[in-house]
Design brief:
The protein is an all-alpha fold. The protein is about 75% helix and about 0% strand. It is built from 9 helices and no strands. Helix 3 crosses helix 4, helix 4 runs antiparallel to helix 5 and helix 6 crosses helix 7. The chain is globular, with a radius of gyration of 16 Å.
């Protein structure tokens, strides 16, 4: 399994000739999410957030794999709308409850459920319940929680690096982070299939 820094390097290489596509998809996701989030005091986000996350994550996984996603791939979540809605609601409620009870349970839940929409876009026919269970298995059950946490910290560093570049760097940092986190899922998935060792960074 690649280290988090190798995932960063591979993501950069994967975007070498696809920056415009990645930036365009990221802007599309940001604009649509902002518009949807402003509908009905957040009701729009509850209704459509899962489908949008599904499609965006699928495009980022494809970029990490060296593929060229079509723009319409972004809307694939609406083909399996109900599982995305259920996954979005369950994930949100579980993480929120964790943070309400104590901060630590919220962090544990956020790490454990961080792969839900990557799993769901990979196997939409398995449904929301499977996606939640599989995300938890890939992270906590398989002992990869520190690797996931490490990727969160690395993503923050990349984000702040983009900020330091007069903010313009965010146009590159955010797509890069999106491909990195998709790459983390890909490495967890492949390592699990190959029965590889647990890695912490």
């Amino acid at each position: 399994m690649r280290s988090n820094f190798n995932i960063l390097s591979h993501s950069w290489d994967a975007l070498r000739s696809k920056w415009l596509l990645a930036i365009g998809l990221t802007l599309l996701h940001g604009v649509i999410s902002a518009v949807v989030g402003g509908v009905g005091m957040g009701i729009g986000n509850i209704a459509l957030g899962g489908a949008l996350a599904f499609g965006f994550n699928r495009t980022m996984v494809q970029l990490y794999r060296g593929q060229t996603p079509a723009v319409e791939t972004y809307f694939d979540g609406f083909r399996t709308y109900l599982p995305t809605l259920i996954a979005f609601l369950l994930t949100g409620v579980i993480v929120l409850m964790g943070f309400v009870l104590l901060v630590i349970p919220g962090i544990i839940a956020a790490i454990g459920l961080s792969q839900v929409f990557y799993v769901l876009q990979e196997q939409p026919e398995r449904g929301a319940e499977f996606a939640l269970k599989e995300s938890w298995r890939l992270t906590w059950t398989n002992g990869n929680m520190w690797k996931v946490f490490g990727m969160m910290l690395l993503s923050l560093l990349v984000f702040f690096g983009g900020l330091l570049a007069f903010g313009i760097g965010l146009f590159f940092a955010i797509p890069l982070i999106s491909v990195m986190t998709a790459g983390l899922y890909e490495e967890l998935r492949l390592n699990d299939a190959q029965g590889g060792p647990v890695e912490f960074v």
